[in-house]
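so ive been stuck on this for like two days lol. basically i have the seq below and the ligand is S-adenosylmethionine, smiles is in there too. i just want the complex predicted, nothing fancy, no docking runs or whatever. if the output looks off dont worry ill sanity check it later, just need somthing to start from for the group meeting slides
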Amino acid sequence: MSEAYVHGYHPRENERLQDQAGTLVDLLHCDTSYPPGSVVLEAGCGVGAQTVTLAARSPGARFTSIDVSAVSLAQAERATRSAGLTNVQFQQADIFALPFAPESFDHVFVCFVLEHLSRPVEALTILKGLLRPTGTITFIEGDHGSTYFHPDSSAAHKAIQCLVDLQRLAGGNSLIGRQLYPIMVEAGLEAVRVSPRMVYVDSSKPALVDGFTRKTFTAMIEGVRESAIDAGMATPEAFDAGIRDLYRTAEADGVFCYTFFKGVGEKNGRG
Ligand SMILES: C[S@@+](CC[C@H](N)C(=O)[O-])C[C@H]1O[C@@H](n2cnc3c(N)ncnc32)[C@H](O)[C@@H]1O
C-alpha cells in the first residue's frame, strides 16, 4: 500500500486529512473537551488536523501531541502556531515505545490511528498505562464497510474493497470502527461507550459534498489507485470506473453515507 495513505505523509493526503477534519468538527468533537489544568496526550497527531480543534476547544488543558513522523509533527506545529494556540507541545515518539512515566496523563485522545496498527489492543494497553486512575481515553475510527451511496455501483464498492484489502495486507484494518467496543474491552478499559457518527451527504449540503464525499472519501480511495493496480486487485479501467461512480454520488441527485465510531473508556471506571 502506498506510504501516502498509510501514514499521512504525502502532501495530497495531508490536505485530505485537513479537509476531513474541517468538515467533521461538530460531528466528531462536539462532546470532547477537557477541564482546565488537565494534561492530555494526543497519540498519532499527524499533521495536527484534530490537534487544532482539541486545543481550541479546551484552552485551559495542556496537550502533548506525539507522532512517529517528524515531517508531520513540523506541519502540526505550524498549524497550531498559525491558529494562535499555545497549549500544545509536540514530541516525536512511537506509541509502542513512549518516553512517558506511567500515570502521566489525565486523558488520552487517539483519532484515525488504530486502523493503521497491526497490534491495536497492545497500543490501547500501553496508552491505558499512561492514564491516571480517574483518566479517560477517547478513540475515533472510521469503517469503510459502512459506506453506501446513491446511485449504487458495484464498480465503486470494488474500488473501496481495494483499499480495505491493501490496508489488511499492510497490517492494518479499515473496518476497525465496528470493533472499537470489543478492542477497548479487551484492553481492560472500563465503562466503555461507543457511539456511531454517521455522515449523511446530499446536494443540500454543498460543504459536505465537496469536503467529505469528494475531498475526503473519494480522494482517499483514489489515492490507492497505483497500489491497487500494481497488486493486481483491479484493472486501471475497472478502478477508474469505480472512482467515476464515487464522484457521481456528489452530483445533484447523489447521496453518500459513511459512519465513524467514537469510543470513550475509563481506566478504572471511576472517571
Ligand atoms: C491517518 S493519520 C491520522 C492523524 C491525525 N490523528 C488525524 O486524525 O488527522 C495516522 C497517524 O498515525 C501515526 N502513527 C502510525 N503509527 C504510529 C505509531 N506507532 N506511533 C505514533 N504514531 C503513529 C502516523 O504517523 C500518522 O500521522
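Residues 7-8, 17, 21, 44-46, 49-50, 67-69, 72, 94-96, 111-113, 116 surround S-adenosylmethionine (CB under 6 Å). The radius of gyration is 18 Å.
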